[in-house]
Amino acid sequence: MSRHVVVGAGAPGRAVALLLAEQGVPVRQITRSGNGPEHPLIERVAADVRDAERLIALTADADVLINCAIPAYDRWAAEVPAFAAALLAAAERGGARYVMLGNLYGYGHVHGPMTEDLPMAPVSVKGRVRAQMWLDALAAHDAGRVRVTEIRAAAFLGPGAVSTFTLGIAPQVLAGETATYPGRLDVAHCWADVGDVARTLVAAARSDRSWGHAWHVPAVANLSAGALAERYAKVNGAPAPRLERLDRGALAELAVGAPVYGEFVEMLYATEQPHVLDSTVTELALGVRPTGLDEVLVATARGLAG
After folding, report:
1. Domain for residue 118, yes or no?
2. In terms of residue numbers, what domain contains 37?
3. b/e string for 147-179 if b means 16 or more Cβ within 10 A?
4. Which of 150, 112, 158 is closest to 131 using CA atoms?
5. Would you say 7 and 68 are in contact if contact means Cβ atoms under 8 Å apart?
6. What pLDDT, on a 0 to 100 scale, did the predictor assign at position 305?
7. Which 8-state DSSP code applies to residue 22?
8. What is the value of pTM for the model shown?
9. How many domains does the chain have?
10. Average pLDDT per block of 10 residues along the chain, 306 residues long
11. Residue 240 gets which letter from DSSP?
């Protein structure tokens, strides 16, 4: 079985590495720290992805390169260009098929469900960074230098997931504390399970139809943060949630002590207006389906409990 290189050991990176290894696929997992899940078929390597030559050497024997990493949220503008260029160079030089994990930022303002054929129309700095990462890779694909596809996911749920829900709502609801959310609590938003993310990435890597196109991880729900919190509390036997909205002013105040909060301000358009995902095309083409919402919410709570 050909080797797959997985970059990143956050929840999606860990999930995809384990999924591949459990299917008998040798995996080399690259992170700055060398962390990752333990499995006989997973080789964990510490490396800085921005070091293009080092990355090229580590992917030289790979059939597939799957990137699940991204620099820290408050350093995207400064660090993503070199990071993205190194990954693309590694795929081009080594001939690996390149599967990118992306998000929905590049779509900008969307009125109605987001579908896989929408053009890039970013309205934020982070959206422009994400869009350019994909457009550069797509240009290389169209020029015949590499085969590339991007899998776009909504906000994460599931064990180890990092998102506005898992940071500001999930642990607080379990503890009976006031939960916070940067945006409106009453508008529909899309949510993705990290296990479904991994299955979609692997499906895309194995499909002849995926290359040169972007795909959507099927959402486990298109629900408001308030409704999701209520469902989360119910299925996990927690008290009814007490929720507080973080608006622009509240985020600015929090950013004085923790600058990362300031990064959410430009993204409020995505949480103050409906943000609904359609994955019909992906489900038909790649044969993936979303995990049941209650199952994901229970797993999310178990993950927080350790």
Report:
1. yes
2. 3-154+194-216
3. bbbbbbbbbbbbbbbebbbbebbbebbbeeeeb
4. 150
5. yes
6. 83
7. H
8. 0.96
9. 1
10. 89 97 97 94 95 94 97 94 96 96 97 96 97 98 98 97 96 97 96 98 97 98 98 98 95 91 94 96 97 98 89
11. P
**Crossing angle, helix 225-235 and helix 293-305, to 10 degrees?**
70
Q: Are 17 and 11 in contact (CB under 8 A)?
A: no
Residue bearing tokens 């970059």: 7
> Which pLDDT does position 217 carry in this prediction?
98
Q: What is the pLDDT of residue 1?
A: 53
Whether the CB-CB separation of 174 and 124 falls below 8 Å is answered with no
Q: What is the pLDDT of residue 143?
A: 98
Does the residue 22 lie in any domain?
yes
CATH number for the domain spanning 41: value is 3.40.50.720
Helices 194-206 and 11-22, packing angle to 10 deg: 50
In the chain, what is the straight-line distance between the N-terminal and C-terminal CA atoms, in Å? 33
Helix (H) or strand (E) holding 67: strand 62-67
**For residues 248 and 252, what is the distance between their CA atoms, to the nearest angstrom?**
6
The answer to whether the CB of 95 falls within 8 A of the CB of 148 is no
Phi, psi (rounded to 5 degrees) for 37: -70, 150
One-letter identity of residue 104: L
Distance CA 81, CA 79 (A): 6
Distance CA 37, CA 15 (A): 9
What sign does the dihedral 297-300-304-305 (CA atoms) show? positive
Buried residues in 260-272 as b, exposed as e (16+ CB within 10 A): ebebbbebbebbe
Domain presence at residue 276:
no
Backbone φ and ψ of 184, nearest 5°: -75, 145
Cα distance between residue 241 and residue 177, in whole Å: 8
89 found inside a domain: yes
pLDDT attached to residue 9: 87
DSSP secondary structure code for residue 218 in this structure:
P
How many alpha carbons lie under 13 Å from residue 199 in its C-beta half-sphere? 16
Q: Are 6 and 28 in contact (CB under 8 A)?
A: yes
